[in-house]
Design a protein that fits this description.
alpha/beta, six-stranded mixed sheet, about 15% strand, globular
């Protein structure tokens, strides 16, 4: 299955589980995305964010629960769509309750779907001239369960 919204996108991947992040990177490359990372260290992620072109991001919450949210804040400031992944459902700070959080125990395709939805939703927000809230899911993303995608 190919997702047009991922074609040609530069996607930053950050997760402490390097084999899992590597598998996600392979899945993204199969969609025509360029992978930035994967990183298992937030300092490297911040450096890449400052130095590389980033269109979207996949952030493992369990990397460093307190600091990964500051990284997500930076993505919001820059208008970059993103999703969170987590081994278990993890409470998100209130400012991220509208964001997609996908179990990293599901198939990579489920994570790709969530990322494509996040990219599409951010584009719809821009098209409607509403202030961009990157990573905030649109109504389509909240319409029922999608195999491991948490809808808060």
């Amino acid at each position: 299955m190919l997702f047009a919204d991922l074609l040609g996108k530069y996607v930053l991947v950050m997760d402490r589980n390097y084999p899992q992040a590597g598998a996600l990177g392979s899945a993204l490359r199969s969609q025509g995305s360029e992978v930035v990372g994967p990183f298992d260290d937030l300092r490297e992620g911040f450096k890449a964010l400052d130095e590389a072109h980033i269109d979207a991001a996949v952030l493992g919450i369990n990397l460093d629960a307190l600091r990964v949210f500051s990284f997500a804040d930076r993505l919001v400031e820059r208008g970059i769509p993103f999703i969170f992944t987590s081994r278990r459902g993890r409470d998100l700070p209130s400012r991220f309750l509208g964001c997609l959080c996908v179990s990293n125990q599901v198939a990579e395709d489920d994570i790709l779907v969530a990322l494509a939805v996040s990219i599409t939703s951010s584009r719809e927000v821009v098209a409607s001239s509403t202030p961009l809230a990157a990573g905030i899911s649109g109504p389509a993303a909240r319409s029922g369960d999608r195999g491991g995608i948490r809808h808060d």
